[in-house]
TrEMBL record:
NCBIfam families: Rid family detoxifying hydrolase (TIGR00004). This is RidA family protein. It comes from Snuella lapsa. It comes from the Bacteria. Belongs to the RutC family. The lineage of its organism: Bacteria, Pseudomonadati, Bacteroidota, Flavobacteriia, Flavobacteriales.
Amino acid sequence: MKKIITTSGAPAPIGPYSQAVLSGNTLYTSGQIALDPNTGTLVLDDIITETRQVMTNLKAVLEAADMTFENVIKSSIFISNMDDFSQINEVYGSFFDETNAPARETVQVARLPKNVNVEIGMIAVK
């Protein structure tokens, strides 16, 4: 059975999807972009600030499912410019313990929703 996870700490969906779905002990998050959940505006000052907002949004979704980044087993990172990888990786890495970091893929794509520079989705297990 699946349970829809919703929190006001992350942006409301902008389409026909949920912030996350819990199936058994496994949480599947939708990709998060740098939308500020309080204002609904994009946080695109620079790639570091943008990535931090994405990770903050994901943290809120994880917490709504009673999880933390320690529960994350897989991350998918989509970026519009591979030249931003090192800065994105630095921010992303600050949310994890390197010895217990999840599996991950990072893919450069032609375009992301609302023309953002980074989108991240995760799978976590209790």
